[in-house]
Known about the structure:
The protein is an alpha+beta fold. It folds into three domains: 7-113, Butyryl-Coa Dehydrogenase, subunit A, domain 1 (Orthogonal Bundle), CATH 1.10.540.10; 119-224, Butyryl-CoA Dehydrogenase, subunit A, domain 2 (Beta Barrel), CATH 2.40.110; 228-374, Butyryl-CoA Dehydrogenase, subunit A, domain 3 (Up-down Bundle). It has helices at residues 7-28, 33-45, 64-77, 79-87, 93-99, 102-113, 227-262, 274-304, 309-334, 336-339, 345-353, 362-374, and strands at 119-122, 138-142, 145-156, 163-169, 179-185, 191-193, 197-198, 204-216, 220-222, 264-265, 268-269. Strands 2, 3, 6, 7 and 8 form a five-stranded antiparallel sheet that branches. Strands 1-4-5-9 form a four-stranded mixed sheet, with helices on one face. Strand 10 and strand 11 (268-269) form a beta hairpin. Helix 7 packs antiparallel against helix 11 (345-353). The chain is globular. The protein starts with 6 loop residues before the first helix and ends in a 10-residue tail after the last helix. The relative contact order is 0.10. The model has no long low-confidence stretch (mean pLDDT 97). The site of flavin-adenine dinucleotide has 20 residues, from strand 1, strand 3 and helix 12. Flavin-adenine dinucleotide binds at residues 120-124, 129-130, 154-156, 199, 205, 354, 357-358, 361, 363-364, 367, 380. InterPro entries: Acyl-CoA_Oxase/DH_mid-dom, Acyl-CoA_Oxase/DH_mid-dom_sf, AcylCo_DH-like_C, AcylCo_DH/oxidase_C, AcylCoA_DH/ox_N, AcylCoA_DH/ox_N_sf, AcylCoA_DH/oxidase_NM_dom_sf. This is 3-sulfinopropanoyl-CoA desulfinase. Its cofactor is FAD. It comes from Oceanibacterium hippocampi. Residues 6-116 form the Acyl-CoA dehydrogenase/oxidase N-terminal domain.
Amino acid sequence: MDFALTDRQRELVEAAREAYRRVLEPYAADGSVEGVRALRRVMAEQGLLGLNMPAELGGVGLPLLDTLLVIQALHACSPLCGGLAHRTSTGACGAIEAYGTAEQREKYIRGICSGEIGISIGMTEPEAGSAATAMRTRAEIVGDEVVINGSKQFVSAVNVNDYTVLYCRFGTTGRASDIGAVIVPHDAPGFQHSKGTVNMADELLFELYFDDCRVPKSNILLDGNAFGKLISVYNAERLGSISRMLGSAQASYEYALDYSQQRRQFNREICDFQGIQWMLADMRVKLDAAQLLTYRAAATAQATGLPEALETSIAKVFVAKAAKEICDDAIQILGANGYTKEYPLAHRYAEVRGGSIYGGTMQIHKNMIAARILDRKISQWKKD
Length: 384
Ligand SMILES: Cc1cc2nc3c(=O)[nH]c(=O)nc-3n(C[C@H](O)[C@H](O)[C@H](O)COP(=O)(O)OP(=O)(O)OC[C@H]3O[C@@H](n4cnc5c(N)ncnc54)[C@H](O)[C@@H]3O)c2cc1C
């Protein structure tokens, strides 16, 4: 067991930071749709998209742990860059890479890695949040097409993306075994999306509407019996979003550490006060522990193929809580400055706050951990 990063991993992290400083920073300041698309293309040129996607499909071909380290480093520089690195590496492309046909892999993975296209994940519905398998959106194969009816909500990045990997029902049994996935182009007839709802971190979350939406049958990714398969790949997506939380926690810790050595009160630096020192020590302990749990899940995945569900949930629960606390302490160390939007910490806090909700809430992950350690199937469904 070796807890140290290799020289190569350290170089990768430094190269990502250097690419941000040298090239990406001006692009990352423009959050408009065109700005994000331009940033995506520049990141592709820098080899910062499709980090763990196969090299023969235009990806960088990194192992999962190295991918997460780069996502964390980029996210610490800029949440926009970290988000793009994540979504194009362990995001929707993971399911296409694992289960897509040769044509789908060639078209979508290559397009994602070159920065030309972006793909969202559409799973949550108004009546199916934590109870994801209660989804109702239905896909029916009619001739050479799939006809889709239903709706989704809280879907990220739809305005800057071109497709959504849509989780939907192919059968009518009402069981999880009906669930499959279709790749829906955002210009498909019968597809519409809302203007977006602004969340705490000033990001947009979209509703998707499917009204006899028609896409070619060749866009089917999995036509049923697929929920378990989709979720096992989704655990890699979760580790990507966990790494983004680590990036924000790291950036907040480093900012507060530096500030505490500049700001003077009572004629001395505030880091001289034990109250501040203990907060800094707590932040560092939590950051190290959060990183180690995440790296363990990634290292196991490298050995076994996909991330292990228990290790992923353990990392998720710890990191989501630790990141909130680290960002909160960082705000405290900056006093009123930390609470204003002139400084970056309020945004970092707002952003990591979402980590307790997306990708399965904290409570759902604790349910999954309990089921594993008790070795019981603990159904959450009320019996009639
Ligand atoms: C920033 C952000 C980005 C997102 N991006 C996407 C996206 O790209 N695509 C997508 O499909 N979705 C996305 N989501 C939606 C996300 O997946 C859902 O919000 C999440 O699954 C929870 O569903 P819900 O919000 O409906 O909460 P609910 O399921 O209504 O839960 C409400 C509360 O009840 C608790 N609860 C529910 N069931 C149980 C239980 N059995 N045991 C204990 N507690 C329980 C929950 O933990 C929570 O505290 C995003 C959400 C956020 C915040």
